[in-house]
Design goal:
heterodimer; A: 253 residues; mainly alpha; 2% strand; globular; B: 309 residues; alpha/beta; 6-stranded mixed β-sheet; 4-stranded antiparallel β-sheet; binds adenosine-5'-triphosphate; binds magnesium ion; ABC_2_transport (chain A); ABC2_TM (chain A)
């Protein structure tokens, strides 16, 4: 295992993050505040409580999940796509590293960034609503697993993408709709019965539900199922990454 | 000398179906400088990419320092430094960070003393904190070299290191290569400047259309393939060649002011003594005599023409 290489890639990616720390910090703070103003205050004032939680507090886990997923994907996909695009990838390809080390470096850094931003949102939320976390360990576990899985997913997208359009395509066309329809801002139980059924095919529902359970102790689906879903997704991404590594797909000509 | 790089029956067919290497076998000796010559699209970069792990060979084997580049890729690649043909660098990175990054990627611990030495050697030390996008093209090329040397490689591939580089930097580059050779580094470089190969290489390989036409000691190649010219300048110009000299391979040049005799340096007898005495027998008065060795460039062009025929 070439740990020096993992460290190098990780530091390099984090350096990019720290160069733009202010942006990395300010933009989630602003967007979170906006969500609270729009959803929490304007709409929330007309919605009483959902399952005994004020609407403002209710959307916090969903908001964190939404951001963590999109950040994990965009950071990791951009991180690996950019060297491909400008040609510096030759160095990673000619270095004594295997794919696992490259993945650890890129996806590890992307997951770290997503985690950081998730925590910033959590902190910002605390200014707007009263938050209590009933199961902090489960919360941390769900959060980290989600960061890692979606960083891996983003890494796969970055390898697959042949141009910037493709890089944006999956997050825009698949992930954002799934996240918005995944119960981030509402409880699945609020939907008409037929949609409640359809929604269960959306994997994001399980993540948001499980994460929300760790905050408030209530869930749309059993928490064990949530854990299974996120662990399953993480495993699936790992398998795909491993296959890419075996075949050198889209990397080595 | 032992072989540092052993390539056997290497073939590379790109996904497009194009066969860029058609069974190349080559041994590169430890500590030598090998220049690879060949026209655009000959397969030079493809060959280097296959050795360095950037592309996967379709068939054949490559060993570097005795390690197979596929099955023992870690050991093999640690020995290799690569300066690619294209200038591919992260624009926002600082020079020194770029070099440290490469070092780490190759599994070496951070070593500021060594990195400083390299940057000084390449006259980049003053620019160590500059962003790469703030550098000139020649400086960027030096950054590529610094990155390639960051992990103290034993074999260095330079893919057209002097393309688009001014005369001074080219000389610097040659000096750097000479120093590396003195440290025992094996160097493979590709170039379109034949005088470059002539100036610094120990051996020369010629590639054309994915085939290695020859690999030979530079001096041996030049004597074997070399034609030499003897130019005899005359005191008074002549209209035509005298009858008595018709048996020689002579041309009248410079408006009748000189005779050019072409001969093979490797032949047993060059016939110069007899020619000169025959010339003086005709009564022509000689003003000066000079000889010229045909350059590698002429040899190279001749080879490609032969290959095309
Ligand atoms: N990725 C690729 N896919 C398909 N064909 C390729 C690819 N890369 C190179 N080739 C083809 O392979 C041949 C050899 O290319 P290569 O880059 O090795 O040439 P070269 O000798 O380095 O030329 P130059 O002096 O221009 O750098 C060319 O005909 C080129 O078009
Ligand atoms: Mg080339």
């Amino acid at each position: 295992m070439n740990f020096q290489a993992v460290k190098s890639i990780y530091y390099f990616e984090m350096a990019r993050f720290f160069r733009t720390l202010l942006q990395s910090f300010v933009s989630p703070v602003i967007s979170t505040s906006l969500y609270f103003i729009v959803f929490g205050t304007a709409i929330g004032s007309r919605i009483d409580q959902i399952e005994g939680v004020s609407y403002g507090a209710f959307i916090v886990p969903g908001l964190i999940m939404l951001t963590v997923m999109t950040q994990g994907i965009s950071n990791a996909s951009f991180g690996i796509y950019f060297p491909k695009f400008i040609g510096t990838i030759y160095e990673q390809l000619s270095a004594p590293v295997n794919f696992l080390e490259i993945v650890l470096g890129y996806a590890g850094a992307a997951a770290t960034k997503a985690l950081f931003i998730g925590l910033v949102i959590l902190g910002t939320s605390a200014f707007f609503v009263d938050l209590s976390i009933q199961h902090p360990w489960a919360m941390a576990g769900f959060l980290i697993l989600t960061c890692v899985s979606f960083a891996l997913f983003g890494f796969i997208i970055g390898i697959w993408a042949k141009n910037f359009e493709q890089l944006q395509l999956i997050p825009l066309l698949v992930v954002t709709p799934l996240v918005f329809l995944g119960g981030s801002f509402y409880s699945v139980s609020m939907l008409p019965p037929i949609w409640q059924k359809i929604t269960l095919f959306n994997p994001v529902v399980y993540l948001v539900s499980g994460f929300r359970w760790s905050f408030f102790g209530t869930a749309d689906v059993p928490v064990g199922l949530s854990l299974l879903a996120i662990a399953g997704f993480c495993a699936l991404c790992m398998v795909v990454v491993w296959i890419i590594f075996r075949t050198g797909w889209r990397l080595r000509s | 000398m032992t072989a540092m790089v052993e390539i056997s029956e290497l073939r590379k067919t790109y996904q497009s179906g194009f066969e860029a290497l058609k069974g190349v076998s080559l041994e590169i000796r430890e500590g030598e400088i090998l220049a690879l010559l060949g026209p655009n699209g000959a397969g030079k970069t493809t060959l280097i990419s296959a050795i360095c792990g950037i592309s996967v060979p379709s068939s054949g084997t490559i060993r570097v320092g005795g390690y197979d580049t596929i099955t023992d890729y870690r050991a093999a690649r640690k020995l290799i430094g690569l300066v690619p043909q294209e200038i591919n660098l992260e624009p926002f990175q600082k020079v020194i960070d770029a070099v440290r990054f490469s070092r780490g990627l190759f599994g070496c611990k951070r070593d500021d003393v060594y990195v400083e030495r390299i940057l000084r050697q390449l006259s980049l030390w003053d620019k160590r904190d500059a962003k790469i996008m703030e550098l000139s093209g020649g400086m960027k090329r030096r950054v590529l070299i610094a990155k390639a040397l960051s992990h103290e490689p034993r074999v260095l591939f330079l893919d057209e290191p002097t393309a688009g580089v001014d005369v001074e930097l080219r000389r610097d580059m040659w000096d750097i290569v000479a120093k590396l050779k003195a440290d025992g580094v094996t160097i493979i470089l590709t170039t379109h400047y034949i005088e470059e190969a002539e100036a610094i290489a120990d051996r020369i390989g010629v590639i054309n259309k994915g085939e290695l036409l020859l690999v030979e000691e530079k001096t041996a190649l030049m004597t074997r393939m070399g034609r030499k010219e003897l130019v005899v300048e005359l005191q008074e110009p002549v209209e035509s060649l005298p009858e008595a000299l018709s048996g020689y391979d002579l041309d009248l040049i410079e408006e009748g002011r000189a005779l050019r005799y072409t001969y093979d340096t490797s032949a047993d007898r060059t016939g110069i003594t007899k020619l000169l005495s025959d010339i003086s027998a005709t009564g022509l008065v000689l003003r000066d005599i000079r000889t010229r060795q045909s350059s590698l460039e002429e040899i190279f062009v001749g080879l490609l023409q032969e290959n095309a025929a």
